[in-house]
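Weekly structure sync, notes
Attendees: PL (lead), two postdocs, one rotation student
Agenda item 3: pending single-chain targets
PL asked that the sequence for the first pending target be pasted directly into the notes so everyone works from the same version. It is reproduced below exactly as submitted, 290 residues in total.
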Amino acid sequence: MPKPFVQKQVIQTFNRAAATYASAIALPKETGLRLVERLDLIRLQPEIIVELGCATGYLSKLLTQRYRHAKVFGVDIAINMVLQAKRQTRRLFSRERFVCADANRLPFADQSVDLVFSNLMLAWCNDIDALLLELRRVLKPNGLFLFTTLGPDTLQELKHCWHNIDHHLHVHPFLDMHDIGDSLVKAKFLDPVMDMEKLIFNYSQLQLLMRDLKALGMHNIAAEKNKSLTTPRQLQKLNQAYENYRTATAMLPVTFEVIYGHAWSHDLPLSTTTASGEVIIPITKIKKKA
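Predicted structure, written out during the meeting:
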């Protein structure tokens, strides 16, 4: 697992990105639309939906249109993202609500949510185990957690180019699909299903890729990253190294490893495990036999 990063930096990064997010929405829009399409294969008629990491609210609107009788709550840790989403949702009697909150401390009652929908948010969570326990808390029995996130092969070209320049961490460390699957099992989610695909976007210049990454808030904020500023000489070397990837169509490819997953909640009590392996279940959660 990557080392934790400072949550304050996550908030600052996405607050800054709120004004530019819509201009570089190609990646989150594409993965979000593909995630919405997967709902066609799932029999679910949710009444309460929570979108974690709602950004400017594009997918919250789609979920509202899809489920006409559901209330949709868009949640984001960055207040500027929430304000942008509210500005774009000015319809009277709108069923979309936007909340600024930490995903690890959601302002929803126990077992009150039917569907938690999350597009590209898990990569910015410090403690995925704590997050999944919180989702277990708010999800109703047989509630669904549906998500995308980015895997470690994301920006592999950029990562390789930087590796030839120095050995500092320049690309955000993304979680492996198997680690996420293990965490879902550990949190006692039912029937976790995961798969992966690689999306390749093309840019005419490396500077345009870097601009889009900045606009999306996709900065490297890992604790072990190099704290010094990138020099013009380093940027020149990076450009030269990336030119080796230029294709016959004169474009520079950029790979994003997209992980899709879903799992179901249930009404088993949440428990904790001690260092000796003993499982502790709160007495208030133990059901009496009929």
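Discussion points:
- The chain has a mean pLDDT of 87.
- The longest strand covers residues 190-203.
Action: rotation student to compare against the earlier draft before next sync.
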